[in-house]
Write a structure and sequence with these properties.
Helix content: under 10%
Number of helices: 5
Bound molecules: 2-acetamido-2-deoxy-beta-D-glucopyranose
Length: 481
């Protein structure tokens, strides 16, 4: 049954939309010079620590919505030697997040995942990870067998004042995270879309330094910090056909500046083939997605010294993406960097990148493959605030969750909510709220008066008191007692 309004809900609503308007018009100052913002969190840790390998300060854990700390039993090869992780049990709710305040900008966000005895009884958990409300990583069975699958990163714009990373349970064990890094990169880095890629996330599939002696981070390769300390893996163990290794210590022209700040060393080694032999890399990928491919070349062979001596085509799954690539001609000379990029839709589960000779053999220095993920539209800010107020006034137990965005990722909406997309406004709204029989005690209050699209509320079989404002949405169903 509906009650008469006790608060002036139209005033509340206009204050709410006024605040939203003010926030959306805050002009952020972009730091183009100086040091990039860099936040490194040692999840589950109660103290800051300086890890000797890279001399970065790892901050003690903060900014999380729940969970517990557990020790890491085994050394994780390739990762900074942190000793704890944070994990989220069923009692912590189905979604838990980190919300870390950062200035407006473009960031590389990296996670390292692991699990152990205390957090998961030594059974590998499976779970989803979202950034800014968009599902980015799904940890599939076997992820912990390979460091490349437990250390993942993506490039994303943060324009709401805080980086939000959420862990979503899928009923297979407790999500667990060792570290979270939020590293600022140049605003124009990896620009692939016109006018900009502010509404896409580039998820790293693979970042390869061909014939590198070993895998490493930007810091190991003396890279500019504005490059986001990207991890480059060697292609030694990858499927690539037969190839030879080539290395030089000569310096490389045009390699390392804005906006992508590549480390010079990735151009100082290459995988090559002899006359007439192809080189190819195959990657397991999500089907029917767009992939942004970045290819790096610098002619470092002593026998190829002028143009037209080495020419090749580049194919993705038998489709030509570049023809007659002549590194010296396109770069303007030997020992000079050439970067090519192309975004392609790949239908199958394999991306086969093939370099096919036209003149002599192949030379390739580095390869980057990113999955292009469109960002989700988020829930109307005002509605998020109302739900947070409701969560508070009802004293919602943490097992119900309600962290991150209420409606997205669409695969993981909050418990008890029915969301609907408003095409005109480009945002999600709450149309249904069903928290019946959850043992809730508290007041429903005026908080839900901002849920202007709400059509149905079922709060029956709880101990809820207080009045429901009459002006709530256009309710056709309401059950409180
Ligand atoms: C995340 O942090 C920002 C900035 O500090 C704050 O405005 C926002 O309300 C926080 N979001 C959540 C879900 O806590
Ligand atoms: C791939 O890119 C094309 C062209 O930009 C776009 O129309 C299409 O929706 C994208 N597909 C996916 C799955 O993102
Ligand atoms: C990416 O490729 C496009 C199309 O060839 C080109 O216009 C653009 O300049 C390239 N971007 C970079 C950063 O190299
Ligand atoms: C990839 O392409 C190469 C060269 O065309 C071919 O030899 C190889 O079998 C292909 N691999 C897959 C998995 O399709
Ligand atoms: C509301 O919840 C009660 C259980 O408390 C249930 O019996 C009833 O069917 C629900 N109403 C709707 C419309 O779902």
């Amino acid at each position: 049954m509906a009650h008469p309004a006790t608060t002036n809900s139209s005033n509340r609503r206009s204050l709410c939309s006024y605040l939203a308007l003010v926030l959306s018009h805050v002009i952020f100052v972009v730091a183009e010079n100086g040091e990039p913002t860099a936040i490194r969190i040692s999840c589950g840790s109660s103290h800051n620590s300086l890890i000797t390998e890279q001399s970065y300060l790892w901050l003690k854990d903060f900014g999380y919505t729940g969970g517990s700390s557990a020790p890491i039993d085994a050394k994780i090869t390739g990762a900074p030697q942190l000793t704890t992780l944070r994990y989220f049990q069923v009692s912590d709710g189905p979604e838990n997040c980190y919300n870390i305040t950062v200035p407006y900008g473009h960031y590389l966000i990296r996670f390292v995942f692991a699990y152990g005895d205390i957090d998961n009884s030594n059974r590998e958990p499976q779970f989803d990870v979202s950034l800014e409300g968009t599902l980015v990583h799904s940890l599939k069975p076997g992820w912990s067998a390979e460091f490349d699958m437990s250390c993942v990163d993506s490039l994303v714009f943060i324009n709401d004042g805080a980086a939000t990373a959420c862990f979503h349970s899928s009923g297979h064990g407790n999500p667990a995270v060792v570290s979270l890094e939020i590293l600022q990169i140049h605003n124009l880095a990896y620009e692939i879309l016109v006018p900009s890629n502010k509404y896409t996330i580039l998820k790293t599939v693979k970042r390869i330094s061909c014939s590198a002696i070993s895998s490493g981070y930007g810091a190991d390769f003396n890279a500019d910090p504005w490059g986001g300390n990207r991890r480059w893996v060697t292609d030694n163990g990858l499927t690539k056909g037969t190839s030879d290794q080539l290395r030089t210590s000569k310096s490389i022209q045009n390699c390392c500046g804005a906006p992508n700040f590549y480390p010079e060393i990735i151009y100082q080694s290459a995988s090559t083939t002899g006359i007439g032999a192809s080189l190819y890399y195959t990657f397991d990928i999500e089907p029917n997605q767009n992939y942004s491919i970045w290819l790096h070349f610098a002619e470092i062979s002593d026998v190829i010294v002028s143009k037209e001596q080495r020419v090749f085509d580049i194919l993705v799954n038998d489709r030509l993406i570049f023809t007659d690539i002549d590194i010296i001609s396109l770069a303007g000379g030997p020992f000079t960097a050439l970067v090519l990029n192309k975004t392609v839709l790949v239908e199958g589960r394999t991306l086969n990148l093939t370099f096919r000779p036209v003149q002599r053999g192949i030379l390739v220095n580095a390869v980057e493959i990113y999955q292009v993920i469109s960002m989700e539209f988020v829930t109307t800010e005002c509605e998020v605030w109302s739900l947070q107020a409701l969560k508070h006034s009802l004293g919602l137990p943490s097992r119900i969750g309600w962290n991150g965005d209420p409606c997205v990722p669409q695969e993981h909406p909050w418990n008890g909510l029915d969301c609907s997309f408003n095409v005109k406004g480009g945002s999600w709204s709450i149309v249904g709220l069903d928290l019946h029989d959850q043992g809730l005690k508290g007041q429903i209050g005026g908080a839900i008066s901002s849920l202007s699209q709400l059509r149905s509320v079922n709060m029956s079989s709880n101990s809820i008191y207080g009045e429901i404002p009459a002006q709530v949405g256009n309710l056709y169903y309401l059950a409180v007692l």
